[in-house]
Specification:
CATH architecture of the largest domain: 3-Layer(aba) Sandwich
Strand content: 15-25%
CATH class of the largest domain: Alpha Beta
Structural class: alpha/beta
Number of domains: 2
Order of helices and strands: EHEHEHEEHEEHHHEHEHEHEHEE
Length: about 280
Amino acid sequence: MIIIGSRYGRLGNRLFLFSHFISNSIEYDYKLLNPAFQEYGHYFDLQSERTEFRNIVAFDNSCRSKTFLEVVRFIERITRRNLSLPNFEIIRHWKEDSFDLNNERFISMARKKIVLTYGWLFRDYPSLTKHQNSIRKIFTPQRETMENVHNLISTARENCDILIGVHLRKGDYRHFMDGTYYYTDENYLDIMKRMAAIFDSHRIGFLLCSDENVNVEFFEAHSLNFNVGTRHEVEDMYAFSQCDYLIGPPSTYTMWASFYGRIPLYQISNPDKTPQLNDFKICTS
């Protein structure tokens, strides 16, 4: 049994981490618990998936799941004091390179012991590719969320032939990596205009989603056809997954939308560069 014990990052990071573990557990048939997914679990109909994916257990944001996570952390504190616990193993991986979940010793432990994992880059790329459709099924949001997504996308597509999702990531990106990927509204506007020029024979629409309030007046002043997301982190992410193209700074948020919806994504590393169509790639893992 594997228990994912660390709440690393936000929604996109945790979806990818959980998905690699799920794919690995499907491939090698061991039980997987993820109390670290508790605050996002209620957005997905994970309970109904148990008949098909019996070995996978996530948790919603309930008292029970919080208590379970505290137990996991208590076990970790014990092991940090070099006190051994029978049938327990702890794997901590905070390095920049990925931990290969196909490791034979890891698979053996997963089948025979209770293994607590802490870290971000636990990966099984071949299994995620193999089981990607199962992952999409597992992480399809609840019906109400998807209805809101459908309504948003239907409105955004009313007056356009091509819909481009634009992730205006602000918030933590002001300070993340010394603001390397923090871009101004002017930066995003310039890229949007360049994208519209690429498709000059089509009606272009933009879906603007941000972790802050979008400066609607600024974008309206430039006569762009655009709609604004709901600022609900799951609804905006899955609305992105129904666009035709995606633009945004490097982020697992748009990467997940690209993976889930098989949507070409352009990650902005230089706001002065004009993106070309061959720069857009579908995220596969």
